[in-house]
Amino acid sequence: MSDAQTVGMERSPNPNFFKGLVFLASLALVGVLLAIFVLGQRSEDGPLVPTATPDPLAVDVIEASMSTTLRLEERFTGLVNPRRTSQLGPQTGGRITRLYADVGDRVESGRLLASLDTRALEARLAAAEASIVEAEAAYTLALATVQRQQTLLDKGHVSQQRVDEAIAQSDSANARIAAAKAQAATVQVEIDLARITAPYSGVITARMADEGAIAAPGQPVFELIESDRLEARIGLPASVIDDLTIGEIYTLSSDQGDVASQLRATTGVIEAGQRSVTTIFDIQDAKAVSSGAVVRLNIDRDVEERGLWLPVSALAEAERGLWSLYIVRDVDGDARAYKSVVEIVHSEGDRAYVRGGLNDGDLIILDGLQRITPGQPVSPRQTSSTNAGQQAAVSGR
């Protein structure tokens, strides 16, 4: 091959170069066609803008019917307790010699429950009784001495001083009798206090010691509750107390059924922690409920408050503790949604009683608030013309 042919081959274009030119030309053609399409879509008045009105959003509404009173069904809870609960123990210390009752035993008033070792006390009682006998003998002798001295005085053999001395000795002997009897009575009381008896009828609920244990003075050995007389303590708002009557029978509900109870008293003091007044109800039938059970007092009352019941789905949280809802209003023949602010007065489950910017006949959107913006066109579908609160109450029952 000649040098000229070699040089010619080196100068011939590369095929990849032509492919690149074709690709760039294709891109340019696509760009031109896209520009022609966009320009063809432009209107004479300016850029392309949507001119169609969006379809109204279908919403469920309810017609507001305002109420002037709010009927509250309030429920207050409390606990059933025995009227009396006692920790029983000896007043004097000593060794427990015998227990006569155990946990769960039902005992009558005055029954012996436990006794301590009283041998030392009985010895002291015997000594006190002996002192009584000695003092009585001394008193008898003193009286006889007074009589003899008085006879000698009448005969002129002794002076009045001797008679007065004999009388003083007899008075002293009589005083020693009283002191000995008081000592014996004190020891007898200590012996009696070394026995634990039931102060009232009830059930033993705890035993804290066994035979042979040394019981300190006042140390509890048994716990006794008065099972036949139960009471329920329930905290109520001060505004509710005025509607109750002392001595009237009220029905409390529990897991064991209804319990008839008589209102015995109210403390009349608002407790700082719970802002309630404690009321005390006497359970009429102690067998109808167990001690420690939870009982509830249901009270229905009317409160003067203009508003209406709404499902909570119609409300959205707003600022400063208020709530918002949407009302459908007619604007130039179009139904649009507008926001209104209300306040929740009372809530029960999935409904709430509200007051605020509402009037009779307002169409309130019930749900789907997250899809709605103020002024948005809507297509209302009225579900009922009755009060929303009545609807919610019926559905709740």
Q: Give the mean pLDDT.
A: 83
Task: Note the total helix count.
Answer: 6
- Number-wise, the strands total 21
Strand composition percent: 35-45%
- Strand adjacency order, main sheet: 2-11-14-13-12-15
Radius of gyration, CA atoms, in whole angstroms? 50 Å
Low-confidence stretches: 1-10, 385-397
Helix content: 25-40%
Main sheet characteristics: 6 strands, antiparallel, barrel
Structural class: alpha+beta
How far apart lie the N and C ends?
A: 108 Å
* Shape field: elongated
Notes on the structure:
With 397 residues, the chain is of the alpha+beta class. The chain is 30% helix and 37% strand. It has helices at residues 3-11, 15-41, 119-155, 160-193, 238-241, 388-396; strands at 57-63, 67-82, 85-88, 94-99, 106-107, 112-116, 195-197, 202-207, 214-215, 222-225, 230-236, 249-254, 257-270, 277-283, 294-311, 316-317, 323-331, 334-348, 351-356, 363-365, 378-382. The strands form three sheets. Strands 2-11-14-13-12-15 form a six-stranded antiparallel barrel. It has a four-stranded antiparallel β-sheet with strand order 3-10-8-5, with no helix packed on it. The protein has a four-stranded antiparallel β-sheet with strand order 7-6-4-9. Helix 3 runs antiparallel to helix 4 (160-193).
